[in-house]
Amino acid sequence: MEKLSSDDSNRNVHGLSHGGKILLFTCKRDPAVSVRERSGLTFRSFYFEREGNAFLNATEGATVISRKPSAHVDIVTCKCAVDVQKRVKTAFVLVTKMSEKGSSFKYSLLALRSSHRLEPCIEFKLPYQMKGKVSILQGPTVMWSHDNSVSYTSPEAEGVRKIPIQMSKCLFGELPIQKGQLFALGLSEPLLANHSPTLGYLCEGGQAFDGSLVLPHPYICITQCMRVLTADRVDDVLRCTVVAATSNQQLVLFENGTVKDTCEVPFGQAEDIQMADTGRNGCLFVVSFNQGHVCAVWKETFQMASCWSDVDSAHVDDFLGCGTEQILLIFRNNGISSGPLEKFIITDLCGISYSVRLLQLLQAILIKLPVMDNTVSNKTPPKKTCFSVVKALKHRRQAYLLRKTHSSLFSDEESNDETPDDKLHETPALSSRPKIDKLWHRITEDCVAFSGLSLLTEPGQNSTPAVIQTRSQVFWLPARGPSTPTLSSPSPGFAFSEPAAKRSRQHIASDDFSAGRLAVTAVTKLAPLLTSGCVKCRAMLHYAEKAEAPLLQNPQIKTDEVREDLLSLLTVLDNWVLRIDSPDYSLGDIDGWIKRREGFKKIDVSPEYLLLDSPGSSAPMLLRWHQINPFQGDLSIHSSQLQMLQFLDSMLSYLPDSCFIQPVKRARSQSTAQKLACALEKERKERRAGHGETPDSGSAEDLVRCCREAWQQNVEKSRLRLNPVVDAGRYREMVQSISQVKMDSDLAQLNKLK
Amino acid sequence: MIQSASLLESWTQENNQLASGCKLSPHVFLLLCLSLSGIPPHLDRAQLELSVVYNTCVCFTAQSQFDEAELLLTQTAQRLLQIAGDDPGTSDPSVLWRTALKSVTGTALHRRVLSLLCLQWGVWLAKSRLTAVQDFQEMSLLEAQSGAVWNDCRAETKEKISNIPILVLDPRRLVDLLKICTAIVQGAERLTEGWSVLSALQAASASPAPRALIAYTHLLSGSCLAHMNRPQMALQCYRKALETDPRCVCALYQSALIYSRLENSQAEIQALRILHSMLLLPSTTEPAMAAGRLLSPSLFLCSQSLSSLLSVPSALSVLHSLALKCVIHSRVSEGVECYLDLLAALQSEDQHGVRVHAVVSTLPKLPRLYLEAGAALLMARRPADCMALCDEVIGSTLDLLPEKVLLEDPVARRVAGSGEVTEEAENGLVRLLWTAAAYLLQGHCYSQLKDWKQAVTHYTRCINLLVKVHYKDTDKDPEQGVDLCVLQRLKGLSLAGRGISFAQIDRLREALRDLQLSRQAHPEGVSARRWYGEVLWRLDRKQEAAACWEQTWSNPIPSLSEALPVYAQELQSGPLLDSAELHQKLQELGPT
């Protein structure tokens, strides 16, 4: 800002504004006294005259810097700063004298005391030349950075002082606290483990602070110049607003170390930020850049107001004497120059504008930022209806449990009616016995699943079924082709080659179901079975041997055993059928999505089912996706409730936002099967009502029943033992009445005292 | 990094606040975006920065500010490369992105970079830079990786909700949308390519997408099949499109066109009828797709061939073609109703001063509509209504009729190139033909009412108008061909009508003369020939009459065609000669 016409090495002109005037300092070797080669500093001050629309010379003066003939004198910088001792704002100029040998550099700070007298203020010597940034701050203090450190000097400091912290990327400035605080900022070096990488240092107090309170860490490296607008100490914590120009062509406003606003400026390499108070119209930041660009940004809106190019220097002062500040832009004088203040603009961008040679100043570009409009509104996508789904599922689950406990008293005949010996010999079906083509069982967790194929129950057969609560289900098996090669031969009953007449006799209501085969499955808790007698224990040992079902090991196998596994799983696992309906967004490839998920495998026996049996999860999971149309489909989940919820949760992220998920009644084909299962159960109950009440002493069922009753009683007893002696409700009532009595007596006491 | 982390946190919070706010616009995010891009790129902030850029670009795209979005995307790619320390040395976006994607492979940023790349894809698609889109698809990284990577997205969000920047649009939805839009646009551009396009469209129809877009894939499959000369399969596809999205009226229109090509007039009329009633529903006129969604699919569907395929004529145009089809395919009473509806709609439109049908150009001029309606009324035996309509036409055009229309030799006209004069002449001719046709129809009306004198008067007026046109019948210019043909037809029909009327009032000489002239003007006229025979018979020139009749058996009165205005064709409205009677007469003559 202070450099004027640097191209002319002889006439090194620096300018500053002070008290509404422009001061120009020139360092020149006077041609008149060239014999003695005196080096001197001249200064001129100019004021603006509105009528003439020009700057007029007010005063002039000169001082001798060095009398040595060969000394090279140069102006480093000039600036207005507060002189703390005199309490006035004074213009200072820093000049350098290089010694003849060039080994040491002598610097002196001169103060313009009156309008025409330059007085030396500080003098110091450095073993190097100041090359980085140099500032004249209040005090006056000269502050500069050199070789990763910041040094300063002032009349009070007595010599050159160096900030005792090693920093890289130094920045420095002053905080506008009542007593000016000079500070330096930088990246601490070396980086400390649990410290902020940004370090600040207050020169006067000599204390370090967290630099990120001024500038956040990432900005230190890219900030080219900064200006602290306000600073305050609240509870010993620094709070400040800072504006900084970065190398990424931005002007950034920080408040207490966070980014408040950002403005893009068209140039990089900022050199100085000044602030102009234009009065009612607010404040402007005037940012000067290298290569003569200047940019003005409104402080309030933080938007660019204007920018100029080919500017030699920019100054802010009340040049017109009207009470508010204006920007003075002095443009470069490329042609034959008669004076340094030939081409200029004085403006506050609000009405005041004075300029010379307007036509030649067309290169002063005016860029206006587009007005941003935020009129268009867009609604956020609707929240997922996850919660309602969970609720619906819960409801369904409860209903299911109710049904389970109330309805099914279907006993598994084979486990009770037959002795284990009978079972081992597995005789071919007799006409007087229930017709079962095949019987199998699986144990999962604490449940055992039984299943019989082509189960026949004829009234009056056998004796009462035992009281074991089971869940029973009936599944339709698809009608199978003659015989697949994988089919094992020793299961003749399983093959679909029986004569039709025989089969029709076997099924109840077989007219309806003759087309397909039927599998009736039942599942029950293991515990009652275990307690129902030693006979069963032997069977249990037998079950234990076949813990792992082949299906879970390899779903690709196509054997009857695997088929049985599948049916058992379907019986054991809880089942939910969900209708997924997405009216305006097609569902896409749900099946493919499930298959892509980890661990899901297709079951070759029944390809519509997908099996998840990852080692991590506790129980296997079966899924079936039935797409009705691109926008609708049914998902059957056979798993534990938790697994189902987990799966649904992940599925929701895949499904479109607008979809609905509802539990549905079973599909029609299954509901027929359900009816059959109910019929079976009902029949069992009736038979039990008919026969069960009269115990046949000595029979196996009776034994089982007795054992179970005993066990039930035991369970009941233990439950009672665990229960508290007094019912909680009663206890609460008692305590309440006691306290009431107490309160009444207290009140009576009080009344008495009165 | 205590302080730096908090800066990151505050920015993340700001992003999340903005993203979950109800007012989404690019400028809301732009400031944050500026802040983030104002500092050197760093891996720690990359996740946030990419998310903010994503949000900003989604908003830009939503407001069709594609250039801004693209600029931001390119800058971001460059910053990504700065992190990686890569410099491809080019600003070609596809190279940039390829390098950027490679540099983040296997890191957490990969997913974010992919979603930005998708936005770039969207911009290319919106700007119809289909080759770039194709290049992108050939990168094919997306297909393989997107599914797997994005599946984990949700799990991650659950872990640390506060630290994850919220996105305004699920990137998977964006991919879904872009995939199907690309398939649709590419399909529309390459409809003629056959099976390859068809299979791509079929695949797209199974992908997750808004209903309307699924319907478009079926529609395009249909059009593709129609190009492949498989109209029945095309119809199936159109039906599927309609089933998928009932608002996809263009499918109905395309079906109507196919039916018309298959000459299945009944189905065509049905399709047009449904189309018209659907167009009258308020909801169908605007594509109500993606309401409430951030990105409308229409942003990406800006292909010329697609929009021509999706365009549907206005309700009134559809009503007109429906009316015309009905009349031509002998469903006269329905046609009359349609015409009356059409005229009523036009009239109410005029009264309200609103031209609702901006695409009115497909609709014929009003007098022609009146005349067509009149012809339909005449065919429906409502001569009084027909006459009223004709009066309207005559009233509006009679004052503007030229004294004489001279049509120049077309060759000479082309050489001279004097556009104005001929245009005026043409306009004059058109008006003259309208008025003449109105008189002709009135003549027909009177003859239907058996008011032969009035009929003769109106036929005469028609003839008097028609003889004002002078032209050289050297060769038929295709441009003027229709007008001249109509002129000849009108001459023939009016002379025939007058001849028949004369015959009815036993002025056989005049009748014979007119019918003879009619046969000269319009040799194909069947009723003129039959009546010529009849008049000859009555004049006791039986042999000649028989010869004349013999000729007419071979060609019955032709059914109406769409090539000419209905009123310039034989309407079978006048007195008919019983062909059985004619046969009998011939047989009587035979033995003698």
TrEMBL record, chain A:
<dbReference type="GO" id="GO:1990414">
    <property type="term" value="P:replication-born double-strand break repair via sister chromatid exchange"/>
</dbReference>
<protein>
    <recommendedName>
        <fullName>FA complementation group B</fullName>
    </recommendedName>
</protein>
<dbReference type="GO" id="GO:2000042">
    <property type="term" value="P:negative regulation of double-strand break repair via homologous recombination"/>
</dbReference>
<dbReference type="GO" id="GO:0043240">
    <property type="term" value="C:Fanconi anaemia nuclear complex"/>
</dbReference>
<dbReference type="GO" id="GO:0036297">
    <property type="term" value="P:interstrand cross-link repair"/>
</dbReference>
<dbReference type="GO" id="GO:1905168">
    <property type="term" value="P:positive regulation of double-strand break repair via homologous recombination"/>
</dbReference>
<dbReference type="InterPro" id="IPR033333">
    <property type="entry name" value="FANCB"/>
</dbReference>
UniProtKB/TrEMBL annotation, chain B:
<dbReference type="InterPro" id="IPR019734">
    <property type="entry name" value="TPR_rpt"/>
</dbReference>
<dbReference type="GO" id="GO:0043240">
    <property type="term" value="C:Fanconi anaemia nuclear complex"/>
</dbReference>
<feature type="repeat" description="TPR">
    <location>
        <begin position="215"/>
        <end position="248"/>
    </location>
</feature>
<dbReference type="Pfam" id="PF13181">
    <property type="entry name" value="TPR_8"/>
</dbReference>
<protein>
    <recommendedName>
        <fullName>FA complementation group G</fullName>
    </recommendedName>
</protein>
<feature type="repeat" description="TPR">
    <location>
        <begin position="436"/>
        <end position="469"/>
    </location>
</feature>
<dbReference type="GO" id="GO:0036297">
    <property type="term" value="P:interstrand cross-link repair"/>
</dbReference>
<dbReference type="InterPro" id="IPR039684">
    <property type="entry name" value="FANCG"/>
</dbReference>
<keyword id="KW-0802">TPR repeat</keyword>
<dbReference type="Pfam" id="PF13176">
    <property type="entry name" value="TPR_7"/>
</dbReference>
<dbReference type="InterPro" id="IPR011990">
    <property type="entry name" value="TPR-like_helical_dom_sf"/>
</dbReference>
